[in-house]
Amino acid sequence: MAGSALYETFARAPLSFERGEGVWLTTDAGERYLDLAGGIAVNSLGHAHPHLVAALTEQAGKLWHVSNLYEIPEQRRLGERLVAATFADKAFFTNSGAEALECAIKTARRYQYVSGHPERFRVVTFEGAFHGRTLATIAAGGQQKYLEGFGPKVEGFDQVPFNDIDAAEKAITPETAAILVEPIQGEGGIRDFPLASLRRLRELCDARGLLLIFDEVQCGVGRTGRLFAYELTGVEPDIMATAKGIGGGFPLGVCLATDEAAKGMTSGVHGTTFGGNPLAMAVGNAVLDVILADGFLDEVKRKALLMKQGLAAVADEFPDVIEGIRGAGLMLGIKCKMPNGKVNEALRGEKVLAVPAGENVLRLLPPLIISDEDIRLGLERIRTGVAKLSASMKNGGG
Ligand SMILES: *Cc1c(COP(=O)(O)O)cnc(C)c1O
Is 378 found in the same domain as 275? Predict the structure, then answer.
């Protein structure tokens, strides 16, 4: 692709989609794919959801942008709705997950600063985490492959092994401000922290005057069958970043915090040009209209079970290809025995889209509106792809 005008930072599949409807994507050649990747958990309500299209086009005819120098009523409304539905008292809107994380980290540092602890700025994080691609969030994520060649790692992040709470406790110093964790790691391979671990993190934070930050950029917004994954755990954070699914495909993120945690975020200390603009707010409110409607999340739970059971059956049938199924809700991982890229290709051969993740896992993050019929069709296609792989290995391929 030497002729491309674009940075070569993405290894793109040779597919170009022209339009989408629900869980289906159509290529420019007219081929239809079942989208179980959902734009990496972004297309929470599928493609071209009529309620979202209406909200966006209606707003587009009225007002696109005014800046945060003025009142934005739809921003106020979305903030109030998120606050009413969560642990939080305050919201700051961004355009992406990484920006929501940046806001979360800044909020924690400012909290310590205005609480008489300006020396507390460090954040404890966990291996396998992914928090974004800005300079601070690659330092928080701690993955060497994302840090290499980008100069000195941003100071202030101390990483401990996944789910090693003793190590997290030991990593706390008089300079520590917060602990940052994805309740369910997405890029890391659909790995969830045991309840007991999250509870211990909460206790540690309370005992040591630290803030607990959850990164629900991927696992939030209905993905687990709850509005946010932390509801499954009974542990509430002080600060939470979310994005991806909350815009349903429109760039939108948000940092949520308790009044106490946000007390340092006073006039002028933080800002954004595009964050919370009327277009994003119209879509964000429309996404919530659907996800918070009576019974919607119960349906996600029911369909998730159907999908997980079906995948487990395929795993049982082809233990040479699949080691097991993991995940919560419609955030599912196929732990592969052979390279996950090969399994991904096999699925694509059956016109099913999935996303590779760490730990040799293949992720399924379908739109939450997927029907039972499409789940069955997806399972059938996945079984066919996996069966072909299994047969090719038995024939000495692999
Ligand atoms: C995708 C992701 C991010 C980064 O979001 P961007 O919108 O790409 O900046 C951060 N945290 C988690 C858990 C993610 O999955």
Answer: no
User: Which pTM does this prediction carry?
Assistant: 0.97
- Model confidence band, residue 15 (pLDDT cutoffs 50, 70, 90): very high
Counting atoms of ligand 1 from 1, which one is nearest the CA of 244? Answer: 7
- Count helices and strands (H / E) in the chain: 13, 17
* Number of compact structural domains in the chain: 2
Confidence of residue 2 (pLDDT cuts 50, 70, 90): low
Nearest CA to ligand 1 atom 6: 97
Is the CB–ligand 1 distance for residue 215 below 6 Å?
yes
CA-nearest residue, atom 5 of ligand 1: 97
- Tell me, yes or no, whether 140 and 258 share the same domain: yes
User: Among 270, 291, 312, where does a domain finish?
Assistant: 291
Cβ-count burial of 227 within 10 angstroms (0-12 exposed, 13-18 middle, 19+ buried)? buried
Q: How confident is the model at residue 1 (pLDDT cuts 50, 70, 90)?
A: very low
* Residue 215 within a domain: yes
